[in-house]
């Protein structure tokens, strides 16, 4: 039996977060009324001319810098000719032999757990096509050209991946970086990020590349992982049965968990690429590259390092807090407000992320860092207990008042006066004589039970430190009696 290994390269299309389309001033918005965002340029009326969107170029350069690419001072747009109903011009403006960025790399966690470098062959700019809708009408199809002409950045890696897990790790990290840089919102459901793995297998140890199969219609990172794993098994089965693999494009059906043949692969010359005569070559001066790299947002790894250094947080904590840029920002603001980074981190990772679930949108979260910071301060100052704080947090989700106001209006602040606590402690000692005897005979666990009951009696409002001390002191007195 021959043992096989996987060889994978990926193409990623990331929609650039710009206000307007790539070559006209139509809005670059998802979800608008079909064909609302169109004009003579993106509808390809005769006599119109494209004008390049500067922000799209700058964002691509920014990504190129983040991925250690060479930024080419000279690049050119090319026409990729193909005929399809969602492509008004009958060609797509892309870049062919001279992309904006080339020869970069990206670090991931390899299958062996060690850092692994994935080479990026190129990053280029191109326009997206429109969208065909087949299901909305009984016969025929409808076309929505809102997406036609929106800016995409296409990234192409070398075939450096050797497992589905490596690809998954890459996609998660890539998405995070693009979101940190405000280059792409990374919204998979809206199609802002799409990936196409090229998958081939070869006998283990061989240096020759096998026949590559391109996988399309991948709509999530999990689907990419499943699709690659499926292809690995399918291709081995084909070869074992004596069949020959041929270069083809296959679709992925995530419900069935299977790939299916779409078409045998076109070669590049089928597209009849040639430089677009309507657009000037793109010249990117050194000064612009310098300016972009100097004003670039902090990258996730740099932020993690800083959070460990500045706030003394653990590696695990910063991993969670930096998974999204918005989470990290939210944490930092909370920490500043309450001046207790560890407690702030616990609250963000615990309560805030619990309520937020999978939604990464913290902007509309009802408790903003300022108010969470005030709440954490109240705990820190001993004005409320941790248990009460959770109750206040729940109230704050619906009530826009300050935590202080909520605490005082509902009488939730800690009871710190010695008399009230002492009274309860004495009551508890009288109520549970057996447990007191057990405790005195060395069964220290019972102490928690006694404190729990005392807290219950005080509706969670006793100052915990004081309660603990008084309980100990009173039991001690009993012992000496
Ligand atoms: Zn337009």
Your description of this structure?
The chain has 481 residues and is of the alpha+beta class. The protein has three domains: 4-288, no CATH class; 298-409, no CATH class; 418-480, Arc Repressor Mutant, subunit A (Orthogonal Bundle). The chain is built from 15 helices and 16 strands. The protein has helices at residues 54-66, 164-180, 221-240, 286-294, 300-311, 315-321, 325-338, 341-356, 369-380, 386-398, 403-409, 418-431, 433-440, 446-457, 464-480, and strands spanning 4-15, 70-71, 74-75, 78-81, 91-94, 101-109, 115-127, 131-133, 142-144, 151-157, 193-203, 213-216, 248-253, 258-264, 274-275, 282-283. The strands form four sheets. It has a nine-stranded mixed beta sheet with strand order 2-6-7-10-1-11-12-13-14. The protein has a three-stranded antiparallel beta sheet with strand order 5-4-15, with no helix packed on it. Strands 3-16 form a two-stranded antiparallel sheet. Strand 6 and strand 7 (115-127) form a beta hairpin. Helix 2 (164-180) runs antiparallel to helix 3 (221-240), helix 7 (325-338) packs across helix 8 (341-356) and helix 12 crosses helix 15 (464-480). It is elongated, with a radius of gyration of 30 Å. The mean pLDDT is 92. Zinc ion (ZN) binds next to loops. Zinc ion (ZN) binds at residues 21, 24, 26, 38-39, 41-42, 149.
Topology of this structure?
Elements: E1 4-15, H1 54-66, E2 70-71, E3 74-75, E4 78-81, E5 91-94, E6 101-109, E7 115-127, E8 131-133, E9 142-144, E10 151-157, H2 164-180, E11 193-203, E12 213-216, H3 221-240, E13 248-253, E14 258-264, E15 274-275, E16 282-283, H4 286-294, H5 300-311, H6 315-321, H7 325-338, H8 341-356, H9 369-380, H10 386-398, H11 403-409, H12 418-431, H13 433-440, H14 446-457, H15 464-480
Parallel strand pairs: 12-13
Antiparallel strand pairs: 1-10, 1-11, 2-6, 3-16, 4-5, 4-15, 6-7, 7-10, 8-9, 11-12, 13-14
